Structure formats: structure tokens, C-alpha cells
Inverse folding.
């Protein structure tokens, strides 16, 4: 899939880390990225995300620097606390403590990525003693590091305090959409308080599930392949599912396609539907620079690739403004067609006249 995204001109692909539930099954984004890097040329490869409380920060920093060199600077470190309580449970971790551990780890990772000698740091779950990376990153001063923000203000607060870009992981959910503008406000305030430069909305990533086809009916038919299973995972938070069912007046056993339609959590539809969905996110957020498709595996492999191709061909040009000058040029040419046709006729007549003159004079060199 990532090879095809690279060919289609997608800018980046995020690969997540999960260890339970049997649906998102990549246990090591770094290993996956190393394999994808060998098979691609241009696309940026990112962890989406590394769950920092599950790893010693020195290991995370070392693996990032290695990937930065292997990809010649095509890697981004996306970080988060860990989304699945079942992951934390298997490792004997208190899920409520993961956010604090993530912050402690991220601060240590950023310190290690700076060329500032050795690092000494001790928390209740890791220790660094005269720690130092063996190599400086390929990307200077360091590879991009991005912080996830879901619904609480902790994500934008941390990203702003540390001067890092945000990933609005829940932009496709009602709760996430409600706080988009507030998150940006908090982010701006924290950046200013910490003395960082003013933020650029072009660096803000919003995430939402998308499946697009030539018509809405086709898109809905394609996701019927596995939307019941995908929906069971996507709506695994029973409070979210109950809220959607109650607000939409749907029964508990409603088909997952109906639930997804009612949730507003993404878009399964035509090109026009998808453009409208992303435009709505742009309006709610006040503007952002990067849109990420959350792949749900609800269609079969071929239809998933077709959806990504339609997105690249029909949706991306709308937002990247890549077709405007072509349309302007065509309209200019089309409007001047009568004049151009007169010019063509005159040029043909002149060529014929010159040919006849040459025949009459008998001088073939003219």
C-alpha cells in the first residue's frame, strides 16, 4: 500500500504501534518503516505513534536516529501515550499514568537528540546515566517530532510547551471536532509562554477515516466487505457508541454503516462528499495544513487501493491548488479559439502562396 501511495504522490504515511485486539497488528512501526523505506523513494514515513511509556527513551531515540539515516531524512517520530488499555494491562502498567510517563519520556528523547553532551535523568520508571547517542541525526538539528492530541487539553499543552507540531488524532470524532479550535488556542498560548515562535497552521495534521469511490453508493458497497468488524473495533469505546446511537435514535443492533453515517466521524462517499467533509474540518479548526486518512481496512485490498487512487486523482488537486492554472490556461485558449483558427488559416494560406511562387519561378531554393 505504501509503495502505491509513493507512486500516487502522497506526502507521508503514519504507521502505528499496537499490541492487542487483533485489528491493528503492527507491533513495531520502526521495523515496518525500515522495510517500507527500501521500497519507496519520496514518501515520508512516520510512527503514528510510538507509545512512549512502553519503551526506554534511549531506545526510542536510537531507533529514530537509525531510521533517519536509513531513510536519508524521510522519517518523523509521532508520539503518544498508548491508545489501548489492553496493551497497558498486558504489560502491568497503570493506564491512568501513561500520559505523565509519555511527557517524561518525550522530554528525555528531545534532550538526547540535542548535541549537548551527556544526559542524566531519573524518574520512577526509567533512568539515564551519562546517556548520549552514538550518532547525531541525519536531519539537523533533529528529525521532526509530532505529538498526538485527542480530546483533552493535555496534547496541545505538551506540544506547545515543547514547541512541537500537533496531530489531531480524533478530528474525525464528534468530541475531537468540538475541541479543534480550542486546541489551537491552547497550543498558541503554550508556545508563546514557553518562548517558541508563533505556530504555522501548515504544520497541523488532522486525521479522519475516508473511503471514496466515484459514487456514494459504490463507496458504501465497497466498505460493506468488513465494516461490521471494522466498526466493532472503531466503536470499541462503548460510551462513544451509546452516544451516537442515542443522538441518532438508532437501535443497539443498528448496522455499523448506519452508525458511522450518523457519527460524522469520517466520510464514506463520493469525491464531492469527501471534499465537503475536509472543508468542514477546515472550517471547524480554523485551518490546517495536512490531512491524514485513517485506514480502517473495511474494504478489500483492491477497493482500498482504488479509493486511495481516487483520492489522489480527484481530492488532492482540489486542496493543493494544482489544477487552477491548467483550468485558467484552457479557458484562455478556448476563449481565443476563433482568433487562433484565423491565425492557423492565415499561416496555411501564406505557406501555400510561397509554394506556388516557388513553382512559378522554378527556383526550388526559395
Amino acid at each position: 500500500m505504501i509503495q502505491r501511495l509513493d507512486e500516487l504522490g502522497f506526502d507521508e504515511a503514519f504507521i502505528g504501534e499496537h499490541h492487542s485486539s487483533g485489528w491493528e497488528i503492527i507491533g513495531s512501526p520502526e521495523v515496518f518503516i525500515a522495510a517500507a523505506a527500501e521500497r519507496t523513494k519520496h514518501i515520508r514515513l512516520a510512527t503514528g505513534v510510538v507509545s512512549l511509556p512502553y519503551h526506554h527513551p534511549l531506545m526510542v531515540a536510537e531507533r529514530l536516529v537509525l531510521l533517519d539515516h536509513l531513510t536519508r531524512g524521510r522519517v518523523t517520530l509521532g508520539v503518544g501515550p498508548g491508545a489501548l488499555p489492553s496493551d497497558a494491562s498486558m504489560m502491568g502498567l497503570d493506564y491512568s499514568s501513561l500520559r505523565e510517563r509519555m511527557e517524561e519520556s518525550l522530554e528525555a528523547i528531545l534532550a538526547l537528540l540535542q548535541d549537548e553532551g551527556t544526559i542524566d535523568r531519573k524518574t520512577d520508571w526509567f533512568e539515564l546515566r551519562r546517556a548520549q547517542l552514538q550518532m547525531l541525526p541525519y536531519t539537523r538539528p533533529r528529525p521532526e517530532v509530532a505529538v498526538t492530541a485527542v480530546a483533552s487539553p493535555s496534547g496541545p499543552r505538551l506540544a506547545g510547551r515543547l514547541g512541537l507540531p500537533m496531530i489531531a488524532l480524533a478530528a474525525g470524532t464528534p468530541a475531537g471536532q468540538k475541541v479543534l479550535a480550542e486546541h489551537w488556542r491552547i497550543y498558541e498560548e503554550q508556545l508563546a509562554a514557553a518562548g517558541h515562535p508563533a505556530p504555522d497552521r501548515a504544520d497541523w495534521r488532522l486525521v479522519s477515516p475516508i473511503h471514496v469511490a466515484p459514487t456514494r453508493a459504490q463507496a458504501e458497497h465497497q466498505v460493506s466487505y468488513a465494516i461490521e468488524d471494522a466498526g466493532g473495533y472503531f466503536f470499541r469505546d462503548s460510551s462513544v457508541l451509546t452516544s451516537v446511537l442515542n443522538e441518532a435514535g438508532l437501535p443497539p443492533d443498528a448496522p455499523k454503516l448506519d452508525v458511522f453515517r450518523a457519527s460524522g466521524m469520517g466520510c464514506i462517499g463520493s469525491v464531492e462528499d469527501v471534499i465537503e467533509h475536509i472543508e468542514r474540518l477546515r472550517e471547524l479548526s480554523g485551518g490546517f495544513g495536512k490531512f491524514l486518512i485513517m485506514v480502517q481496512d473495511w474494504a478489500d485490498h483492491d477497493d482500498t487501493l482504488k479509493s486511495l487512487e481516487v483520492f489522489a486523482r480527484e481530492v488532492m488537486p482540489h486542496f493543493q491548488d494544482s489544477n487552477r492554472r491548467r483550468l485558467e490556461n484552457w479557458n484562455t485558449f478556448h476563449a481565443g479559439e476563433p482568433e487562433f483558427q484565423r491565425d492557423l488559416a492565415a499561416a496555411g494560406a501564406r505557406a501555400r502562396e510561397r509554394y506556388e511562387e516557388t513553382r512559378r519561378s522554378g527556383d526550388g531554393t526559395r
